[in-house]
Amino acid sequence: MKSSSDSDTSFRVYLFRRGDKKSGNICCDVILNNKDLPNLRIGDILQILSPSSQQPFYVQYMHEHNETYREKRIYLEKTLADRFSVLQNDTVNVSIAEKKQIALDSIELTFRERYMSRSDMWRFRRCLMNTCTYLAQKLDWLGVPTTVHDLWLKGENVSSGFISEDTRVVFRSSSSLVLIFVQVGSEMWDMDPFGDLYFEKCLNGFFPELFEKWKSNNCAHYVTLIVVSRWYFDEDSLDDVAKEKVSKDCRGRYYEDFYRVIIQNEHYDDWKSVIPKIVMEKLNFQLRLVFFNYRQTIQDFIQRQLVTESCKRPVAELSTAADGNFFEALNLSMNSFNAYYTDRRFETVGHQIIFVTAGAVFNVDRHMVNFTKQRSIDMGVSLDLVCLGEQPLHVVPLFVFQRLSESAHPFEEYLIPHWMNYSYYRMPVRSAISIKFRPRIKMCEELLQGTEFGLVMETNDDDEDEIDMDAYDEKAFASLIADSPSKSLEKPVGSDGRPLINPFKPEEFSVRITANRRRWIHVFPVDKLGRAKHSHHYVAGKSIVHITQMDETEPDEKSLSALTVTAGSPLRRPPSPQASSMEKNMNRVTGQGAGGKKCVWAWGSTGEEKWNPDVEIGVDWKSLVRSGLLPITTDFFPDGRSIHNDYLVTAHQVLIDNDVMHEWLGETKNANAEKFKSLVFDQMISQRLQRGFQIEDQSDRIENSKNIRECFLSYSRTYHRLFMEGDEISVTQYFMRPSEFDETAESVQKEHHKYLFKVPDSDDYVVSTTTFKAINLLKLNWSYLDTQIQYRNSPSLFKNEFKCFFSRFLVTPLCSSTTKKIIAERSGGDKYGAIKNETFDERQKEGFIKFLETVNRLRRKVDRHSSKSRSLGLDADVNKITYSINDPESLLKAWRESCSFYYFYETTARYPSEVFLATEFVAWLVVNVVEIVDRNCAIDFANELIANSKIRVLPAGQLDIDGVSVSILNKSTSDVFRYGFFLCYFVDEQNYDENWSQALQCEIVTRCPSSILSDCCFRLNAIEMDFLTQKSDGTGRQYLPSHIPYFVLFNPVFCTNKAFEISIRWFMANGQTVAELARQWCNKANSMNFHMFPAPDDPFALPNNPNSSPLRCPVSIPFEHEKISSENLPKAILAILEIFGFIEIDCHMHPVPQFVHMSGGMFISFDKNQNCFLWAWNPMMSHRYRSQMSCTEEFQDYMLADFRQFCKNVSGRLDTFIANVLND
């Protein structure tokens, strides 16, 4: 390593702790006197070599130290010194390193159980630029603790280095939503070369090893495991009725797809420790049961479903892995991930699909491939294909396009997908005998039949008789061409005129570089030559990343297969998906990536790793253990020719409104127009990153001399250019020109999928339907969004059409003591009726008011009178009745003196100086006023005071957003006094016409007075509030306004017999700010005898709703109610659900009421048509919420089992209870 000094300088080491008072609260990693090291400046990188290490480490000099000593001293931060085994008083050699020499190629950061949005990742990356880091360093910026997991420099893992602007920053999540599919094909019962059945290889090898790695890496994934299969029917065995019930593929074959969920949304801190006890015993037992009895189970179901008088015995057989439902399973997964902005969780980041199969070659439909590929790339889902078989001699995975019967094309067409990661799993060696030979092909069974001694390889030692196998293959391939109708061509041509790929020699085929192929490129490590490669690809036991092949050729335009057109080849066919989906016609989209790349190899996810038949593909444990998150940067942008020929261009301008500058920057000395404009520009980038855009690497640069910024962003086939100069920001959008290959009615029909689905605890499969839809950001009005960003609180930005983030919560009575008692005693789950005792309603009302005080950031002023009371009770004290309604001035004076007023600790909010609560005023009137004897009288008198302009209620008006009423300033609403959490104030000349800030206010009622849904008092209202503060980015830079608006959606009334709904919609806040707000609310609710927990927007996900999550479904529980009359049925159902701990979500006056358990773990509703209950688990309940309420998996299973027993009237429990209810 070169140094700026002639020789190293020796220093004695002294240790200090960052931020320690003894060290002067210094927050840096190294301190030394720059006079001891010539030419040392702030920001330089120090290379330190200790005697206990052969490799130096690097640290950035950021703090000047002027004290001089007899010896040369260097002070190292203790955590850093411990990491590199440097001790107190050690002597180390220190020199100045060149930044270019130690600039890292990539850095990988991991984090766990935190929510980090894509805009947060971009800000995090900016914080890391031009700093030094080291392996296992703990970083805590933006409220997210992260760990430096990997550092790559010139193809090698290093222990420290410098993060430059060219360094790729990769984020990996240790807490993702993981969907594991196990494909059951006919090969699962075959043996691998080492004598294991493939399903045994999966259960006894892959899963235990994966779970062990999750444990050792401290992962906290939420896992759903699904067994999938496809069954084909003999057409002759089906009648017309049966054919209507099943599906038909592109080859005209009848089939049905089966999905069985084994584990649904479960999380365990230690999967391995639970394996021998509960989970793996349950998992292994259920999976083994699935595999051992799978065929018989499915065939029995088919018989029950399809057998009719004319169809006595339908014949069905299990498909191979190649003919299975691979793409349908992927699209079902992406449907469940599609609404990324709703049901936002704060404990997980990232979506991962792990597909375990015995095959690696799939027969596919061309449209489904194109659709799934583009959808997967656009959504940024991490997809890992784990193959249990042996790696073949050709490239994998491999898609085979099926020819239709009428097609005259003589060749099969192949696709080598670049948009998925793939691994080959091999069982660990279990014998002392080492078997190094690994077969790469599978013998056909026909060769083994009829042979007495099996297959015998004859050898001949005579070298002259040896056959050149490569020459033989070339001759065979040439003969294939000679016999084809296209023999005039040098190579066989596909349906689009493009030469076909030989899967055994993919190195002969390269493709143009496209945005799709570069979307994930920055997640891969690079070798010494800067080529991105897979670290789990090995040659002779060594990762290919560490192998430098200097003679490895690069793909260029000469090796790019030209689009060959002949007289007999069709010109108007949909494009082959081997090329990018943007390559629609002769005028392909062209451009270049980093380093001027114009072409990449057709094989591999990176396109920069040339095919090598000696490559052994291992398991990408890094991806399987911690899913990689979609990079925020890419390196492709179309060139000028393509922009001119292939794109439509639109532009709009954003004029900066300096009048709102102080709303972003506050009344500070640093507030200036340039800073405000830069913040708006950053926010425009952030909003695009949030929706899946990527920044074109090297494009976000600032010309400081002219104060000009430019940034290019890409998403799918759409590109945006943001340009800032002067007082204006211009946005240019590039859209692909319309093509004749747009969706047809036939292609749209293929996106509808019917399947059979079974969830845990369900008795049988149910018919489900869904629709596969791609995300279309072209419909988003970017011009309006960009214009309104600077105003922050435009209500229209919080509509669903702009995809603002949304989290829904429910507040229910606290029931943890009853839950623990049920689990301990196991004498029935119908014990929750005891919660509602005589004081239940009053306790709930008092607790709810205190909860809303926290939501509104209210605090009490210092008490001036010991007689102050907050009681909601109406018990009168005769000694205190001293006032009359005939003397309102004296009455209000007495109330003013006895009341403890609120104040708001939100500094920007504007409220009257003396704010009091409506419920407290009502209670005081009943106790202290002669003529007022009850609550109704007090409310009437308060309305008289409002009419006489003595008091007033803080206003709340109506404005519709997505069917939700939003509070706005409206004086008419302040003219009505209602009982509940309403904030009132005294009217005087100074505040009569003031426009006060808003507050969340709620009426307290006993039931909904309306039977019409549109007039329901529980319809959601909404109010705008501000986040208090934003997390520092660690550099002191401000990247967001000091007060970020968000909307709170809530029930405008509170009833003790109904769950209170409160939700958050936000637009530009950083993730941990929102998570911290929700955590504060949950903690306050818990201290007030409530339980606040997240809930999905669609609790039940009904199977006949194509817009619901396709991987959730309620459990049907039959209800024997023949002895209950139709008039008494609603009353009986409410009574049953109450004793089992369920509370209403919606108003019971409206059709199909929904209920949630007070523990938050499950939902229930009653289906009158099927005469059954629908029981659904809450998929949003994370480990933290479950532990607070003792809502464990054991408790949930027990409650479901006991509820089923109750509904079956086991031991007469149902009859006894109904008789008691009807007699009351």
UniProtKB/TrEMBL annotation:
Residues 567-593 are annotated as: Disordered. It comes from Dracunculus medinensis (Guinea worm). Residues 578-590 have a biased composition (Polar residues). One of its GO terms (cellular component) is GATOR1 complex. PROSITE patterns: DEP. It comes from the Eukaryota. This is DEP domain-containing protein. Pfam families: DEPDC5_CTD, IML1.
